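INPUT
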Amino acid sequence: MSNAEIGVIGGSGLYSFLEDVTEVRVETPYGEPSDSVFLGEIGGRRVAFLPRHGRGHHVPPHRINYRANLWALRSVGVRQVLGPCAVGGLRPEYGPGTLLVPDQLVDRTKTRVQTYYDGETRADGAVPNVVHLGFADPYCPEGRKAALAAARGRGWEAVDGGTLVVVEGPRFSTRAESRWHAAMGWSVVGMTGHPEAVLARELGLCYTTMTLVTDLDAGAEAGEGVSHEEVLKVFAANVDRLRSVLFDAVTALPAQAGRDCPCGHALDGVDTGIALP
Ligand SMILES: [Zn+2]
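OUTPUT
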């Protein structure tokens, strides 16, 4: 099977114009990923793109098969993942067009499977052990560095650090929820950053997210609250420069052999009970 070292989970606007993209269907023990994996090359690095919501954006955040997506990426050789996503700003100074590279995460999702290691027999008969991994620092320090440097290089000063709170969706927050999130000191709110981050950790993958603020969340503005049209409009206005930053971040990531961050050692000495691809 064709191979890649870096995975990007995001919309098709991020890769559709690349030349020589190869589409690969990947089967996983967890069912179908959101879509095929698309293999291409950026600056000499082999990259696997996976449309998080599928082509045509038909899979809502709470129904994404996050386990299958991360497993599929690891199956084609990926060890470092960049997962950009659209978010709402929880502070007036984080208005539309802000790029923020979080260093912390709060999980407020409700129905999503968060682990590969639940002790339950899989459909293929394999039985994972119950495993508890550290997650104090959910994002890769090297990936964050690469993302911040890439943004700076494109004249887009990103906010370095902050907390991404991930809600279940698909609805947006109430005003009270949004004010509460802000009062807790959290920075941005989204629907897709989790359990992507923890599942990456469970597979020993580096994971970094870059969040693009598309709107001020309900509690941070006086108007009608968030609309989906508004989100799409701001995303479309920023997709070109987000893509440039993403591609620069890809080339700035450490070489596979030189990867020396804690993420790659998350499974050292851990008996997962199952073979990883
Ligand atoms: Zn790492």
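end of record. Helices lie at 66-75, 141-153, 175-183, 196-202, 228-252.
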